[in-house]
Amino acid sequence: MSIAVSVLSNLFSPTCLLFMILGCALGIIFGALPGLSGTVGVTLLLPVTIGMKAELGIAMLISIWIGGVSGGFISATLLGIPGTASSIATCFDAYPLCRQGKARKALDTGIIASFIGTFFSCIIAMILCKYIAKLAMKLGPWEYFSLCLCAIVLVVALSQDNAAKGLAGAGIGLLLACVGAAPIDAVERFTFGDYNLYGGINATGMMLGIFAIFLVLVNFAKNEMSLTDKEAGSTGGEGLTWQEFRSNIGNMVRSFLIGLWIGFLPGMGAGLSNLVAYGQAKSASRTPEKFGKGCIDGVFATETSNNASVGGALIPMVSLGIPGDATTAVLLGALTIHGLEPGPLLFQNNPVYVYVLFGAAIVCAVLVFAMEHFGKRLFPMILKIPYHYLYPAILVLCFIGAYSASNTIFSCGVMLGMTLIALFLEWADIPKVPFILAFILGGMLEKYLRRGLAYSTNGALAFVTRPVSCIFLVIAAATLLYPLIRGRRKKPGTVEGK
User: Fold this and answer.
1) Sorting pLDDT into bands at 50, 70 and 90, what band is 147?
2) Domain map of the chain by residue range?
């Protein structure tokens, strides 16, 4: 009871509500503007929250994320350009509806579906996390090592059909995670005598360089200094009817479960769930020929699933300390910066912070719904923000944020160094998600490996003799080897007449 009172008093304090409203508004703007995203918004505002109370900082970052995921459908509807990767499939039907003069119907559908996906997935995540954390408490360092390794391998296997490049990205991330004092014995590694590197590479500087600075440089190099030649559509027309909503309940339930499950799997997230849900909705429809021509069933499917991924991604982040996607990787770093250690012990040691996080997500789902419903006539104005004003502001915020993270210019250097690495990854076509996940989990991976070896009497055999650990290792090995086996089984056939 005392925990509930503390959580509610934190969430509904005037200061917290004000910051959540501000965060939701900023998240919607970042999500709506093509090329930006809620991840960039969270990364930019992360340094701002360092001096705040942990509860307030967590609530603000969550609000930006929730607003960013939901806001992505705005440009997808009015411009036919996805604001974020999670809204790619939304373009297929939302924009044709807009072109038909039914923009209001498309926006109403997106707003309602986004709310349902976020609100209920966060409630389910809040309920499930406690039980998953209790189960995780029974595991040892062997199981945690295998789980972290399995998470990295699963992301590598999904790396744009090129597991070798995904593996290279993960290797670079693990190498950078080794910089600084080693866990357990505190031996210095790769510091080159610089005391600034003793604590490892600054996570804030790394995130700002990988996401924000990189984004500005690439868009500037491509001369993308204006939003688009298209004009944002009108938000008029008839709205969503009750009959249309009721006929899509089954579609939303199916899409919700798809989004929740895909969000739970490390590294997949909303970018994949909206495409899978769209395909399932089309295959299950009695009129699949209407999809792609302005069918609201497709909008319901994509927006429900990509927002349901929010709750799914929170489950492994909070209960296991493993980020479900790029944004939760940044949030994981934020929790660490505020002195919290995500994982099973978080529920036991800091229950108030856990429920503030989930409570903030649920409250922000309601706030975003209200903002989008009453402010949808302003959406075309959001999409007309000139990038030649936006990019300099982002750069200034990046340098201020990097400096404030440690009060040293060195953090700014780390940020620029990470930008160069991001440019290299882009040039080499190496995906960033395995790199980021490996960097975040690298410290845990090594810590649990060394503890497992120290605690066991039979050395490394303990990792394969303990059932749960062995299962994770088998899944990881099968995930890596299956594409090779499948490639060998598919022998090149001969073509007649040649």
Assistant:
1) confident
2) 2-485
